[in-house]
Amino acid sequence: LSPVDRSRLSATAVEVLWKDAGTESAGCVIRPAPGLLDEADAPAYRADRVADAGSRVDRERAVAELTDAARRMRPGTGDGRALLWLRAACDLTEHADARDLVLQQYGTTAYLACDYATGRAAGESLLRNPGPALSDLDLQEAAFLVVAVTANQRDWATMSRLATAYWWDGLPVPAMAKVTGRALALCHLSRWREATQLLQHNETVWN
């Protein structure tokens, strides 16, 4: 099947699944034919179809289902699928503040899946263009994510840049995220004295 045909068929399947779910919630339980799909695989199959359907189905409901399915997936059991669902959810999210929350989940999931390039891209995107839905702690977490994935990539040239005030000063994020992110980078470079001095001089910012 071509991508377009697969998207159309998936959209049809999703509409049927959603209609059946609505009928079941109204009190009429519709049970699948035995042997067609293992009950444990049903949520993942449904999320796959929603991701394939894309904008052919209700966007808001699709995003809710995709993010929920990714959240329920245990790390190490289906990381590739969870990342695919979250990437689709990012593409389907129409409002910037909601997209930031999905992107935050995408970055964390990528880190846990050892997809460090994706995690770093998600974290940097949050830091460079943060929306109103993100709190100061969310942005600090994004800063830590960028530093952590850089360390796991053993990209010490980039880590050296993350240890400079210049890299952080241009970002539209709270001082807490800048100071603690830079301090963490210094620690990864074993520049303990500089990290200590930075934190001491900015204690009111992060404490």
Textual characterization of the structure:
72% of the residues lie in helices and 0% in strands. The protein has twelve helices and no strands. It has helices at 3-25, 42-53, 59-72, 79-92, 96-112, 116-128, 136-152, 156-162, 165-169, 175-188, 192-201, 203-206. The N and C termini lie far apart (56 Å).
Please tag this protein with its features.
0% strand, 72% helix, mainly alpha, 207 residues
Shape: elongated
Mean pLDDT: 88
Give me the Rg, rounded. 21 Å
- Main β-sheet: number of strands, strand sense, barrel status? none
Point out poorly predicted stretches.
25-30
Note the total helix count: 12
Give the termini distance in whole angstroms. 56 Å
Derived structural class: mainly alpha
The helicity comes to: over 70%
> Helix-strand pattern, N to C?
HHHHHHHHHHHH
Question: Which range does the strand content fall in?
Answer: under 5%
Number of DSSP E strands:
0
Brief summary:
With 207 residues, the chain is mainly α.
SSE order and pairing:
Blueprint: H1 3-25, H2 42-53, H3 59-72, H4 79-92, H5 96-112, H6 116-128, H7 136-152, H8 156-162, H9 165-169, H10 175-188, H11 192-201, H12 203-206
Helix pairs in contact: 1-2, 2-3, 2-4, 3-4, 4-5, 5-6, 5-7, 6-7, 7-10, 10-11
